[in-house]
Write a structure and sequence with these properties.
Helices cover 38% and strands 25% of the residues. The longest helix is centred in the first third of the chain and has 37 residues. It has a seven-stranded mixed beta sheet, sandwiched between helices. It is an alpha/beta fold. Helix 1 packs parallel to helix 2 and helix 3 crosses helix 5. It is built from five helices and seven strands. It binds S-adenosylmethionine. S-adenosylmethionine binds next to helix 1 and strand 2.
Length: 205
């Protein structure tokens, strides 16, 4: 993997440190809502070539159809190690890689998948620009992401809390829709799943 700067190294260390407890800590939210939303997101995936970025502990891996070839990357060795412990279907390849510097040539993938990733990527627009680059013309990216709320007082509260939350977890005030657009992707669909804070987004290059 290409070398990363100090800020990125700090994010990676945070996920390395939290990898062992990640599935336990996020389990209630998975049971309450995320499991259902992941299934909804997966319905948007089209092969044959799929890239999942920020795969983490591999929560989505069992949801892919056998007919698609999935490359799944993360820049945290410990999160990836957890993903490797899951049953590994033959159509899934895992790799240690930074979404801000993807190894593939332009136009490689039919679908790129990201779930709760761009709240953590150190330079989100750079990562999203890489997503755009590796998508083929006519392909699409599907995102399940929590974002800064639209309600002003709530957004202000999220802004105040963000420095505390982000010390051990993701940012809670990322403007991910704006970042997707800033990276040159065209937002084709934006579904509010939990108020306007958790969104399913489909975007095209
Ligand atoms: C909140 S976790 C989500 C994991 C998984 N997608 C899920 O739905 O459970 C965010 C993941 O993004 C990864 N990540 C953050 N920045 C990254 C980057 N620049 N390149 C690759 N992975 C990154 C972290 O290591 C972590 O595993």
């Amino acid at each position: 993997m290409t070398s990363i700067d100090d800020a990125a190294a700090a994010v990676r260390r945070r996920y390395d440190r939290g990898a062992a407890r990640y599935d336990v800590v996020t389990w209630p939210m998975e049971r309450l809502a995320m499991g259902r939303f992941r299934a909804r997101l997966m319905a948007q995936v089209q092969g044959p070539r799929v890239l999942e970025v920020g795969v983490g502990t591999g929560r989505n891996l069992s949801l892919y159809e056998e007919s698609v070839q999935v490359d799944a990357i993360d820049f945290s060795p410990r999160m990836l190690e957890r993903a490797r412990r899951r049953p590994q279907p033959v159509n899934i390849r895992l790799a240690l890689m930074d979404v801000e510097n993807l190894d593939w040539p332009a136009g490689t993938f039919d679908t790129v998948v990201a779930t709760c990733v761009f709240c953590s990527v150190p330079n989100p627009v750079r990562g999203l620009a890489e997503v755009r680059r590796v998508l083929r013309a006519g392909g699409h990216a599907v995102f399940l992401e929590h974002v800064r709320p639209g309600t002003p007082w709530l957004a202000a509260l999220f802004d105040r809390l963000d420095p505390i939350v982000a010390r051990s977890g993701p940012h809670i005030n990322r403007r991910t829709i704006e970042n997707i657009r800033a990276a040159g992707l065209v937002v084709e669909r934006e579904d509010n799943l939990l108020s306007d804070v958790l969104k399913l987004v489909v975007a095209r290059p």
